[in-house]
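Much of our argument rests on the idea that a fold can be written as discrete symbols. Part of our work consisted of pairing the sequence of a single chain with a tokenised description of its backbone. We regard such an encoding as a compact summary of how the chain folds. The amino acid sequence and the backbone structure tokens for this protein are reproduced below.
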Amino acid sequence: MIMKKIIDNIKRWWHTLFQVWIKEYRLVFSDLGVLLFFIALPLAYPIVYTLIYNPEIVYDVPVAVVDNCRTADSRQFARMIDASPYTKVAGYASDLEEAKTWMKERKVYGIMELPHDYSRKIGRNEQAVVPIYCDMSLLLRYKSILLATTDVSLQLGSDIRTKKIDYSPVALLSTAVGSTVSTESFFLGDVTQGFASFVMIGIVVLILQQSLVLGVLMLGGGSSERRRKNRGIDPEETDGPMSASILGKSLCYLTIYAPLTIYILHYIPVMFSLPHIGNPLDYLTFILPMLLASTFLGQMLRPLVVERESSFLVFVFTSVLFLFLSGLTWPRPAMSDVWFMLSSLVPATWGIEGFIGINSNGATLGEMSTPYLMLWALTIAYYFIAVIIEKWCKRRDLRHYKVPSVP
């Protein structure tokens, strides 16, 4: 008798899982709002975001030079700025006010003011300061101006030190010993130092999580509205074990997102020539627990959404927060302990870390074992929490909506 009861419970569990799985397809594809966030958003957002940041590096950004020194040293600085691939000198302004007028008219996007004591300080072995004013309306222009001025200042500093050594007895020793230590840079993942190659590889993973969570929350809001109208009972809900119901819904979302995940993680980098050297099998296997954890996270947040429209507020509030916690804009090891722990609870944080390692730096799934195991840990934890929360919501709605609402 006990064995028969156990077998019946197992059969009922699997029957509930498959019934919820199939029914959830109907709920998803009959809801235009959910389709907008499950289908349209993942298809359009990666293209729109990547187009904004392409080309990744802006060349020949026009700048104005205000030369108050008017010496050979100041002219050399201006010529080197003009020779840089990132900037070009659009003109020499008589004073700073004229240069500001050019910037307001969008003739230039940066101003370099060489002070009157520029050559004197160099001759006295003092540090010369060159103020730079940049138009921040486009970060890519600011980056180009900053790269150009940084490269020129480093090169000039190196030339000045070399001249001092050439005129000192140390020059004889350096000639006998040989050249100084040479340096060479290798940029892993972002070989072009482009903004899109740096940020978009992580943003696409965050788009996967956020669109998935938003769609799940909208479905949860629709369920709450049906319970409110039917005395706490959702007519679309399948009666059965809650653990099977939660997993059945997640399997529905996972199968819908399978082709979208391949599109976002494989074809978007190929279309826009973003870093893409990892093994597709590795990063697709890696992203599986992140998608599952995201579905359970969305079902965990269900109490926050009592109406379909409320999901937008959750999406807007969490998107910026999750972006900062991901480590893309600020390294996670530099965060305080509290923020570091909070970031560890976000699936996209580990998803971004692992996907960048595999896709951009050529790591294997085994080398990304820490974020991979963390995603599975979040998946298991969020699954059980979602089951508990959903049971609590069901009992709460039965008590709260016994009296039907007045239309």
